[in-house]
Amino acid sequence: MRDCLFRIQNWSSCRDLERVHMESINELLNVQPVPCNEPGHIKLKEYAEEAKLLIQAIDSALMSFSKMFELESLYSRACDFPIYVKQIEKLSQKVSSAKAWLQSARKYIPDKCSAAIDVDVLYKLKLEISELQVELPERGLLLDLLRQAESCQAECNETLKTPSTLKNIETILQEWDDFPVKIPELMLLRQHRIGAVSWIARCNKILFNIHDREDQHAVVDELSCLVKDGASLRIQVDELPLIEIELKKARCRVKALKVIHALLCFQGYIWWWYVGICICVF
What we know:
The protein has eleven helices and eight strands. The chain is mainly α.
């Protein structure tokens, strides 16, 4: 017991001494009968009570949400305490895990992250900090970012369920244009918009001189392809009904050209027949 007290009382000034374990103190205090002529027994019991209070504080911190500075302060207190309590290992693990999470989370804070953030990373960080039960300012920032990501995802999903106009899609894309999180549904809307804009550009190119072209058969083919591609778009485009009308007109022009060609051929046949008659007569 005296050796135990000596190590406890002198550990602060001589850290080379091995700290006394709480289990060893409990064994000494549980010796029966209690030695009445041992003055160190009362002092050792006082140290044991301090150790129990420290253990309670650590257990409480491990079982509840705690601020980072509180955990670090408690860990520092446990490290400076002359009695070793095994709960310090779990506390050390919690502090280390919180620091590792903090280092990882700071990479994805929008102000410090130049690249787009994968939404799955946010869910992973949320799960980790929920299990750690540590209050950190970065936790609030990332949870807020995740809420925005979920809001964006929900809006995009709702938009993808039914055909939307190009104007509506562009409004949504403009709203989330600078959003730092990669949302698959948002990326899909961007692809749909690119497809619609490209299709409209093709329309404008064909419509530019559609009535002046001599190759109306090619015009019908091009317009038919446009109608087919326009019908497969996931975005409603105002130009599609116009292209369908122009396709009907182009088909009519092709039919008219066929009739004209047939008439010209017939007229040529009549002319040559007339010439033949005249030759025979004269």
